[in-house]
Write a structure and sequence with these properties.
Its EC number is 3.2.1.67. The chain has 440 residues and is mainly β. Helices cover 10% and strands 47% of the residues. The structure holds 2-acetamido-2-deoxy-beta-D-glucopyranose (7 copies). The site of one 2-acetamido-2-deoxy-beta-D-glucopyranose has 4 residues, from loops.
Length: 440
C-alpha cells in the first residue's frame, strides 16, 4: 500500500474481510501507477471569463481518458452542457473546479441531462463510467454546483422527486476506481451517487450546501442535498467525508452490499439513512453487510440549517402501493441485514436511532414485508434533543430480530429521563426498556 492512499495500517485492519481485499485491489490496481507510465498527458487551463470550457474538457478526456493522464490546472472551468467521462486505466488530476452554469430552465429540460440513475428517475449532468481509474482533486478542485440560484428558485416553485434537478457527481457502471480529496461546492441537489458499480473507494469527499440568501434564514433552504446515494452497488468504501447538507448525509438505497464508511462528519440535515426502501413493488431492495464507523453529527446554527434530525435511521414504504414512483410507490420487499454502526458522536440530534416502515403511507395500508435484522449500535456518545433516544418501530409484517446495543451512552436533555420505544422487535441485547414480542 502506498502512503498516498491515506489509510493507516490500523484503518485497514478494521475493514472487514471482503472489503479489505477490494480496497487493497483498487488502491493497487487502479490507484497508483507511477505517473510516467501513462502513455499520454493532456493538460488544461481555464479559458477565462465569458468563455465555455466544455469543448476542451471533452477533447482532453477523449484523448487521454483511456490509458492516459489528464491534468486540470487551477481555476474555474465553465461547463454549459451535460458531460460523460469514460475512464479506463487512467488518471485525472483536478486542481480546479468544473463550474456548472446555473441555467435552471436549461437543466430541467430532460433532454439536457442524463437519466442513468434508475432510482426515482433522477437526472445527472456529469457522469463518470469505466474501470481502473483515479480521480484526484487534491482538495483543491472538484465541482462547483452553483447551488444558490437553484435553492432560491425552488422556494417559489414546487419540487418533486424525479423533477430533473441534477445530481452533481454521478459514478455509473464503474469498476475499481478511486476518487480522492474531491470537493463539491454548493450542490443544487444530491451531491454524489454511485450506481451499478463495484470496488469503488472515495477517500476524502467534501460537500457543502449552505444557503446564503437572508430571505430563507432559519429554514432548511437546501432540501435534497444528500451527500451520497448508493444504489445497486457492491464493495463501496467511503473514507473521510465532510458533508454539510439539508437532507441525508449518506443514503444507503436498494441493493447496496458490502458498504464501508469511516470518518464521516455530517453537518446539519437528516443524518445517515438506510432508504427509503421498498418503493418499487416489483424490485426487492437488498442491503447487506454495511459497516459505518467514526461518525460525527454536528448541529449547525439554526439560522443556517435548522435540522439535525437523526444519528442513523432506517425507513421503508408500507406494504401497499400508493401511486407510482418517482413520487409515489410502496409495496416493495427485500431485507436489510448485518449493519454495524460504531463510534458515533451526536450533537443535539432530534432522534438518535429511528426505524420506521410507514414512509409515504396511510394508516389503512398493509404492513411492509421488508425485513430488518441484525442492526448493531456500538459506542454511541453525545446528546439527543429529546428524551426518546431510540425509536424502533418495525413492521408487524416483518418483526425485527437481533437488535444489538453496546456502550450506547447518548444523553437525553438535562433534567429528563431517557426512554426507548420498541415496536415489533423480536430480540435485542443491551437496551434496557426495549420490549420484545414473540412470533409464532
Ligand atoms: C460560460 O459560457 C457561456 C457560453 O459561452 C457564457 O455565456 C458564460 O458567460 C460563461 N460563464 C462564465 C462564468 O464564464
Ligand atoms: C428541450 O431541449 C431540446 C434539446 O435541446 C429542445 O429541442 C426542446 O425544444 C427543449 N424543450 C423545451 C420545452 O424547451
Ligand atoms: C458497463 O461497462 C462495461 C465496461 O466497463 C461495458 O462493457 C458495459 O457495456 C457497460 N454497461 C452498461 C449498461 O453501460
Ligand atoms: C460551508 O460553506 C459556508 C458558506 O460558505 C461556510 O460558512 C462554512 O464554513 C462551510 N463549511 C465547511 C465545513 O467548510
Ligand atoms: C436487487 O437484487 C435482487 C437479486 O439480484 C433483484 O431481484 C432485485 O430486482 C434487485 N433490486 C433492485 C432495486 O435493483
Ligand atoms: C450480525 O452481523 C454481524 C456483522 O455483520 C455478523 O458478524 C454476525 O454474524 C451477524 N449475526 C447474525 C445472527 O446474523
Ligand atoms: C438543541 O437544538 C435546538 C434547536 O436548534 C435548540 O433550541 C436547543 O437549545 C439545543 N440544545 C442544546 C443543549 O444545545
Amino acid at each position: 500500500m502506498r502512503p498516498q492512499s491515506g489509510l493507516s495500517r490500523d484503518d485497514m485492519r478494521t475493514v472487514f474481510g471482503a472489503l479489505l481485499a477490494a480496497v487493497a485491489a483498487v488502491l493497487v490496481s487502479a490507484g497508483e501507477l507511477p505517473r510516467g507510465s501513462y502513455s499520454k498527458t493532456c493538460t488544461l487551463k481555464p479559458l477565462g471569463a465569458g468563455r465555455d470550457d466544455t469543448d476542451q474538457i471533452e477533447a482532453a478526456i477523449a484523448k487521454c481518458g483511456h490509458y492516459g493522464m489528464t491534468v486540470f490546472e487551477p481555476g474555474q472551468y465553465n461547463v454549459t452542457r451535460k458531460m460523460t467521462w469514460d475512464l479506463v486505466g487512467s488518471r485525472v488530476d483536478m486542481h480546479g473546479y468544473l463550474s456548472f452554469v446555473p441555467d435552471i430552465d436549461y437543466w430541467l429540460n430532460a433532454s439536457n441531462t442524463y437519466r442513468v440513475v434508475f432510482i426515482q428517475n433522477q437526472a445527472s449532468w456529469f457522469v463518470v463510467t469505466g474501470h481502473d481509474f483515479v480521480i484526484d482533486a487534491h482538495s483543491s478542485g472538484g465541482i462547483n454546483g452553483n447551488g444558490q440560484p437553484w435553492w432560491s428558485h425552488f422556494h417559489t416553485v414546487t419540487r418533486e422527486d424525479g423533477d430533473g434537478r441534477p445530481i452533481a457527481f454521478t459514478l455509473k457502471n464503474v469498476t475499481r476506481a478511486l476518487v480522492k480529496d474531491f470537493r463539491i461546492e454548493s450542490q443544487p441537489f444530491w451531491c454524489n451517487t454511485v450506481a451499478d458499480s463495484s470496488e469503488v473507494v472515495y477517500d476524502g469527499m467534501y460537500c457543502n450546501a449552505t444557503n446564503q440568501d437572508p430571505l430563507y434564514a432559519g429554514k432548511n433552504a437546501v432540501p435534497n442535498t444528500d451527500g451520497i446515494n448508493t444504489y445497486r452497488s457492491d464493495k463501496i468504501s467511503l473514507y473521510n467525508w465532510d458533508i454539510t447538507c439539508g437532507d441525508d448525509c449518506l443514503a444507503i438505497k436498494g441493493n447496496s452490499t458490502n458498504i464501508f464508511a469511516k470518518h464521516i462528519t455530517c453537518r446539519g440535515g437528516n443524518g445517515i439513512a438506510f432508504g427509503s426502501l421498498g418503493q418499487y413493488v416489483d424490485l426487492p431492495d437488498i442491503v447487506d453487510n454495511v459497516v459505518l464507523e467514526d461518525l460525527k453529527m454536528i448541529r449547525l446554527d439554526p439560522q443556517v440549517q435548522p435540522n439535525m434530525a437523526n444519528g442513523v435511521y432506517f425507513k421503508t414504504w408500507t406494504g401497499t402501493v400508493n401511486s407510482s414512483p418517482p413520487t409515489g410507490g410502496g409495496g416493495g420487499g427485500g431485507h436489510v441485514s448485518n449493519v454495524v454502526t460504531k463510534g458515533v458522536s451526536l450533537d443535539n440530534v432530534t432522534v438518535p436511532v429511528h426505524v420506521y416502515q410507514t414512509n409515504g403511507g396511510h394508516s389503512a395500508d398493509a404492513p411492509s414485508t421488508l425485513q430488518f435484522s441484525n442492526l448493531s449500535f456500538i459506542d454511541w456518545t453525545g446528546t439527543s434533543q429529546r428524551s426518546t433516544l431510540v425509536d424502533i418501530e418495525c413492521s408487524s409484517g416483518a418483526p425485527c430480530p437481533w437488535m444489538r446495543f453496546e456502550n450506547f451512552n447518548v444523553a437525553p436533555p438535562v433534567g429528563t429521563t431517557a426512554t426507548v420505544k420498541c415496536v415489533n422487535v423480536v430480540s435485542e441485547s443491551g437496551l434496557p426498556g426495549c420490549s420484545t414480542i414473540t412470533t409464532a
